[in-house]
């Protein structure tokens, strides 16, 4: 009998108990995966949004539920441009709408004379000559199956002829469409208000330094120059991260207690068996490895289930909350590594006491037990 089959047979002695313990640990793994994938998604989206038009940083209203809900007066762009170190500014309005059955398609409101619009590379068609004409990003065009000559139908039954396809090098921007700023403000029913001010710096200056000047000049704003700062703007993400880590710690403790209980009961029920194994020559380290192996077996089962639950939970959250479409979960290798670390951590915590108890048993003492 192989080591794996021995561990598996022992786990199946009490299938209901093993299943319940596995379910508890899998919930903790799922929470970790969902939390970290959403956090990674926030940082990825922030990194793309703050560098729209290859800007050095973006200025947002602080403490809003998500990036798209930031509201700044248009006039702020001119005032930011006067700060030392700022070369250019551009106004940007982000509007989420439904296009061809796809929820949360993003339309960018820009002004043609500002640098974000000027840096769009036209790869098909022509630039708009009238205010009601739209440009479509190359990724968005492929996803929607649209091109020059077609119409972009957005909220409230509004239709805009597509006259060109652009590429900016920014995945977020290339997945959407561009319309004149005034039109997007009217679509959003927020005339004179923008989402962010994109800032381009003078050569040789650090984004951190100039961003600090902007925040000092305009209290209530956040100048985001790196994705890790996204949490300063997006209160939903901050709540996810803060609450999630607390719940994850509790899940680790509860999962460890569950595995401890299961393995302790298993040791109590198999005292004579352990005594026999010791009597036939098993060393204490082999007994310890058997108990730890069973705990790891439970955690690996929970890992497989928990990864699936975490992926499903993260996708459901992103699709049915106010962040829908703006923040998509990012399932990186690091996210799954943390899930694995959580599962193994539960196994180690849960196996510690039962293993200590099992290796302290002498063969004679174990064989005397009924």
Entry summary:
The chain contains 14 helices and twelve strands. With 370 residues, the chain is α+β, with helices and mostly antiparallel strands.
Walkthrough of the structure:
The structure is a single chain. Helix 1 (3-11) packs across helix 12, helix 2 (15-49) runs antiparallel to helix 10 (235-269) and helix 2 (15-49) packs across helix 12 (284-319). The chain has helices spanning 3-11, 15-49, 76-80, 115-118, 138-144, 171-174, 181-187, 207-217, 230-233, 235-269, 271-279, 284-319, 333-359, 363-368, and strands at residues 57-61, 72-73, 86-99, 102-110, 121-125, 134-137, 151-153, 159-167, 177-180, 193-194, 196-201, 221-224. The longest helix is centred in the C-terminal third of the chain and has 36 residues, at 284-319. The model has no long low-confidence stretch (mean pLDDT 83). It is an alpha+beta fold. The strands form two sheets. Strands 1, 3, 4, 5, 6, 7, 8, 9, 11 and 12 form a ten-stranded mixed β-sheet that branches. The chain has a two-stranded antiparallel ribbon with strand order 2-10. The protein folds into two domains: 3-44 and 237-368, no CATH class; 51-225, no CATH class. It contains 14 helices and twelve strands.
**Structural domains: how many:** 2
- Cα distance spanning the termini: 26 Å
Q: Into which percent range does the helicity of residues fall? A: 40-55%
Shape annotation = elongated
Write the element-wise H/E pattern from the N-terminal end onward.
HHEEHEEHEEHEEHEHEEHEHHHHHH
Query: By helix and strand content, what is the structural category?
Result: alpha+beta
Using only CA atoms, what is the Rg?
A: 28 Å
Strand content: 15-25%
Number of strands: 12
- So how many helices? 14
User: Stretches where pLDDT falls below 50 for ≥5 residues?
Assistant: none
Largest sheet: 10 strands, mixed
- What do the pLDDT scores average to? 83
